[in-house]
Amino acid sequence: MLDSLIAFAADFPLTLVFVAFIAGLARGFSGFGAALIFMPLASAWLGAFLAAPMVLLMDSLPTLGLLPGAWRRADRHEVAVMFIGVLVGGPMGAFLLATLPPLLLRWSIVTVVFGLLILLVSGWRYHGPTTRKISIGVGWMSGLLAGAAQVGGPPVVAYWLGRALAPERVRANLTLFFIGTSLVAAASYTVSGALNSSAIAHAALVMPGYALGVLLGAHAFGRAPREFFRHVCHALIAISAILGMPILDPFLR
């Protein structure tokens, strides 16, 4: 048993521990960007079918402690309406993760990450009317992206930050929504077989580096210029997406 664990750790791409640390820094400081940084490179080394549940485990488990506070402060009705879309989009995304050819899936992830990066850099926020159908549609899109690649955050952030809501309410809404989305993804990955012992073992290897990054990033919050760090996060997402492109495999892997 011990020999098997040693062999497993020896074959693991240790560079991903550093990537997880950088992703954690971005998550701890700005609250976003972890999956956008980690997924392209992890998919290149391990495949998206393994990388997605790794992101789910390392990013969602630490946030469970935030559930009681988010439950008290969030607009639970509004979150529930958007969550209807997640119940449809999440399993659909997990199905794509399990059935798309690996190469097509990697190109799709890189393309989506670039698209979401453009959304983040532009600073665009939704300022149109708020209806039940639109909220469900945003939830569906977020669930689809989360199920397929754990990158469902930007659409919801752009939607809620464009509303005239108190920052505390927006933060609580997002926390409660993402915890629910993670639960749907975990159930979908269990059904598809993506959430298995291998994913758990791989996540356990990168989780310490990720947790350290989150702690340091949170500690730096308020001490470093937010705009500067946001630009750094955007640059890291772009670099990760470029290096994760399958066309570079002969040179990098």
Describe this structure in words.
The chain contains 13 helices and no strands. It has one domain. The protein starts with a helix and ends with a helix. The model has no long low-confidence stretch (mean pLDDT 86). The protein has 253 residues and is mostly helical. It is 80% helix and 0% strand. Helix 8 packs antiparallel against helix 9 and helix 9 runs antiparallel to helix 10.
Keyphrases for this structure?
mainly alpha, 253 residues, single chain, 13 helices
Unreliable stretches (pLDDT < 50, length at least 5) are none
Distance between the termini: 29 Å
Q: How would you sum up the major sheet?
A: none
Computed over alpha carbons, the radius of gyration is 17 Å
Beta content: under 5%
The helix content is: over 70%
Domain count, please report it.
1
Order of helices and strands: HHHHHHHHHHHHH
Overall, the morphology is globular
Please state the structural category: mainly alpha
DSSP helix count? 13
Number of strands: 0
- Give the rounded overall mean pLDDT: 86
Helix and strand topology:
Elements: H1 2-11, H2 15-30, H3 34-46, H4 48-60, H5 67-73, H6 76-99, H7 102-122, H8 132-149, H9 153-161, H10 167-192, H11 197-220, H12 226-243, H13 249-252
Helix pairs in contact: 2-3, 2-11, 3-4, 3-7, 3-12, 4-11, 5-10, 6-8, 6-10, 7-12, 8-9, 9-10
